[in-house]
Design a protein that fits this description.
Elements (H helix, E strand, L loop, with lengths): L1 E5 L3 H12 L6 E6 L2 H11 L3 E5 L7 H11 L4 E6 L4 H9 L4 E4 L4 H11 L4 H19 L13 H4 L1 E10 L7 H18 L6 E6 L5 E7 L7 H19 L5 E11 H14 L4 H4 L4 E2 L1 H5 L5 H18 L3 H21 L2 H14 L11 H18 L10 H12 L6 H8 L3 H12 L3 H19 L4 H7 L5 H12 L3 H4 L4
Parallel strand pairs: 1-2, 1-3, 3-4, 4-5, 9-10
Antiparallel strand pairs: 6-8, 6-9, 7-8
Helix pairs in contact: 2-3, 8-9, 8-18, 13-14, 14-16, 18-19
Length: 498
């Protein structure tokens, strides 16, 4: 997106150029001039998206330059600068089609707001605004920043949110996670871009446990059709999950329902991560609405059975046969007790999970706990007999992750992606990582990046924007927020002379 600047004061042009250069948006300053005649030449040559024009310049003033310039570059939008708070100037500028009228001196936030408002229909700026939302949302759900730091009147406090958490299950011992998960992630991000419109913000983020989540946010009420757009997005997301599910991968979608502000959304996302194993009972492999899974959230016997089943199959995949047998021994009495009064829909859902997770298992039609446990024991023995011997590398997955992110911290890296490469589940890797390091993956990665940024601030003369990019952040603003949270001061204040 191209900008031209016309102002007869060199310090003003320099300040505008510097402020625009520090913005996250991909603005390009195509040219600058000190008078109206020069502006007409720039308009004819570059056909810019936006022109920032001083209202009073020698020779041809800004208003006359706009009148003539509209013929040369009809698609250009106009921002007027003035050193005079004269309503007559503003009125004339608006008649000529100016989008913004600003009084000097202009601050960076005011200028950025004016540029965004002027070009708000531009697709690139819409994507930028949405990407900022995604960065802040990811930092919030992973505990890297506090929602208290966000504008009290802004979207994170006053907006209407909705989320969907994706639980991806592959059969025990199943291979080929990485390709399937990468394809699913690409489908989600393509869907996001297709449904992105003014009035709704959309993001796909990774939760602390490694699960993918899709989130929408909009202003409360129904302005700009945001409510309808958010609903359409989640319907499309559910269809993507359904089409991606099959014998090799079952995707369960857990919906949060509508939430007021991030605080309520964050609470529901955290609850979903704690009760994720309830999906085995209330609609495995399907989209489960908030009311459905909330109805089972308080049933501890279901949660205990689900956790033991999930842990048992993880033990089996990890070739910890003794732990697998112990999990089955704990599971049998709980299963027998639940089976007496369990709902038929819960039993059908659980059978779907078992047939998927333990591919090839022969399950008794009557579903009796004793028969189920016997079959699971036999299945475990079969997996161990047929499975190829594994080295101890899998038990050292955290060390592999630590080595990887030390080398690739500046790249886009997530715990789900690394889990796929190591052929373990994201929840398993997340748990092991926290046990070994004492913190979540995202907190560790952010701490590493901030340490590298500190070294660059002290030891180089790189610009803040360059340092942000060097440690893995496209957004200078997002990097600054994280750095300030970590060190208690802005990067520019932290820097010491080299």
């Amino acid at each position: 997106m191209k900008i031209v600047i016309a102002d007869d004061e060199n310090p003003v042009r320099y300040a505008l150029r510097s402020m625009i250069g520090e913005m996250d948006a991909s603005w390009t300053i195509a040219g600058e001039t000190s008078n109206g005649e020069g502006l007409l030449g720039l308009l004819s040559e570059h056909r810019p998206n936006v022109a920032i024009v001083d209202i009073r310049m020698p020779g041809m003033d800004g208003l006359e330059a706009i009148r003539r310039g509209k013929l040369l570059s009809p698609m250009t939008k106009w921002i007027i600068l003035s050193g005079y708070s004269d309503f007559r100037f503003a009125q004339e500028a608006l008649k000529l089609g100016a989008s913004e009228y600003m009084l000097k001196p202009v601050g960076p936030e005011e200028l950025e707001r004016a540029l965004y408002a002027t070009y708000k229909d531009g697709r690139d700026l819409l994507l930028l605004h949405n990407e900022r939302f995604g960065c802040n949302l990811s930092a919030l759900v992973n505990g890297l920043i506090s929602v208290r730091l966000e504008d009290r009147e802004g979207i994170f406090h006053q907006g209407s949110f909705m989320g969907a958490v994706f639980e991806l299950d592959r059969p025990a011992g199943g291979l080929g996670r990485a390709e399937a998960h990468e394809a699913f992630y690409r489908s989600l991000t393509d869907c996001l871009e297709a449904h992105l419109h003014s009035g709704v913000l959309l993001a796909v983020v990774t939760l602390p446990g490694g699960e993918l989540a899709a989130v929408s946010a909009r202003e409360s009420g129904n302005r700009c059709g945001g409510k309808r757009q958010a609903a359409d997005f989640f319907e499309a997301v559910k269809r993507i999950a359904a089409s991606a599910s099959g014998p090799d991968e079952a995707i369960t979608v857990l919906m949060t329902g509508e939430c007021r502000g991030f605080k309520e959304l964050g609470g529901r996302l955290s609850l979903l991560q704690r009760v994720r194993d309830l999906r085995f009972f209330c609609g495995f492999g399907e989209a489960i609405e908030y009311e459905a899974w909330q109805g089972t959230a308080g049933r501890e016997e279901l949660l205990a059975i689900g956790r033991l089943l999930s842990a048992g199959l993880e033990y089996l995949q990890d070739r910890q046969y003794l732990n697998f047998q112990n999990a089955l021994s704990e599971l049998e009495p709980l299963w027998s007790k639940w089976e007496i009064g369990g709902r038929e829909s819960e039993k059908r859902s659980l059978l779907r999970y078992l047939r998927h997770a333990a591919a090839g298992i022969r399950l008794p039609e009557d579903g009796l706990a004793e028969g189920m446990i016997v079959e699971l024991r036999s299945y475990g023995e079969k997996v161990l007999r047929e499975g190829k011997s594994k080295e101890d590398a899998r038990h050292d997955v955290v060390a592999q992750v630590l080595r990887h992110i030390e080398r690739h911290y500046a790249e886009e890296v997530g715990i789900g992606q690394l889990a796929d490469l190591l052929n373990v589940s994201p929840s398993y890797l997340s748990t092991q990582f926290h046990k070994k390091t004492g913190m979540t993956f995202m907190k560790y990665l952010t701490q590493l990046r901030m340490g590298k940024a500190e070294e660059l601030l002290i030891g180089t003369r790189l610009q803040i924007k360059q340092i942000a990019e060097e440690v893995g952040y496209f957004s200078t603003r997002h990097f600054t927020k994280l750095f300030t949270e970590a060190y208690g001061k802005y990067p520019s204040d932290y820097r010491k002379p080299v």
